[in-house]
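User: Could you walk me through two proteins back to back? I'd like the raw sequence and the structure tokens for each, with a short line separating them so I can tell where one ends and the next begins.

Assistant: Of course. Protein one, sequence then structure:
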Amino acid sequence: RAGHRAGPFQCDTALVRREIYTHSHHKVVVDSHGSRTADEAAAFVRHLITPDMRILDAVSGPGSITCGLAEWVPQGEVIGIDSAESIVAHARRRAMDLGVDNVAFEVGDVYELRFTAGSVDDVYAHQLLQHLAEPVEALREFMSLLKPGGVVAVRDADYGTMTHFPHEVGIDRFFEIYSQVAKANGGEPDAGRRLLSWVNSAGFRDAELTTSSWTYATPASRAHWADLWSGRTGVSKYVERVEELGVSDRAELAELGTLFQEWASSPDAVFAFLHGEVVARA
């Protein structure tokens, strides 16, 4: 465990309900997620964070956002959970390297969080609900942990808003395949537009929706985005799942990945999409 002040959460390692994570834990995915920051990814809830808060980050991935949240609460603490032991170990190493001592990481299940009821001020989830078969059930679990008036803050992409120029039908096909796989896995790639409905259905109050965008329009950002997606077209769990479902095959994915890279090399290329963001009260 990285950090020594997470005791009040009283977390026990839980059995994890197995859902299929569409992105997989391919190195290119983990590296990309590890570049995310709290300053960007949690900006929509920053105004509600106080220095003494206890925050649960569900699911924390490689821990870059989680460690950033910990810097926001120097008199508080943050715990991150993830279903993959290897990713939890990765996040712990990051926290140790950064010297962040008010953060901890545990293996856990978002449907059965083993924390004391009413022990958390804020539950934060970035790009999580789009991957869950039962997002409202997970949100209800979050509510059970929150203190009265505590905050839930969720952010998810909306793949249906993705747009790019110059238009390339192969990129449309690339994300058509992804959408089919995500839905077959029980997820909802257009989660961003559904967050408000899910939060309301879970029984939260005073829900507020905002949106933000990610834009890739510089040589470096376009290359990053193309690398992130085309990198999955080689050996990865994603490719295995694509072939298992019969929605495409390794050859087509490789061809589309190469096309994505070629598109990204154009000085005119632009890719952008929206995220939905909701903050609400227990």
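----
Protein two, same layout:
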Amino acid sequence: LTRAQIEAFTTTHLETAATHWTETAQAWEGHFETIHNGMLRPGGTRWEGDAADKASDRSWGDLVKVRGAADGLHSASGFARNGAEDIAWGKREVLTAIEEAEEAGFTVEQNLSVKDPTTTMLMRGWETRQQQAQAFATEIGSRAKALVAMDKAVAGKITAALAPVRALRFEETPAQDHGPTAT
């Protein structure tokens, strides 16, 4: 990451996705529950018989599938919300390290290298300042790597949590041919 990328790093997309996934999961569960309940009593009338049993079984199976996918959405939402907080903390850690280096009189470049604009090799104490610059650069680099690792970990958790959504299928059985019909 460059300094500009770190400064511009945002987690708004994670917060937005978390809200969307939660709302979507709730909507799916609500709609499929309504369908299943309606299948048991279409129009408020109790439905009985083989067709009613098959329709009820099918709507129940669909509801169970949707609940599994909704659980995935809820999990992804949680990982996104927590991940947004973790990543924001990681970003603050990097920016704090940059600020500390600058407060000590160093310049932090876009590539996160640290330079001392106040001393030259001919000045006394130059080696000490170079060691300080290197220590700041190491700390900034370490925190930047931690930020990248956090971002990748959050993405991995979200991707894994969404597996049930990607796997969601409603298999249709072909209609059985009951022979010719009278017209």
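The chain is about 70% helix and 0% strand.

Let me know if you want the two compared in more detail.
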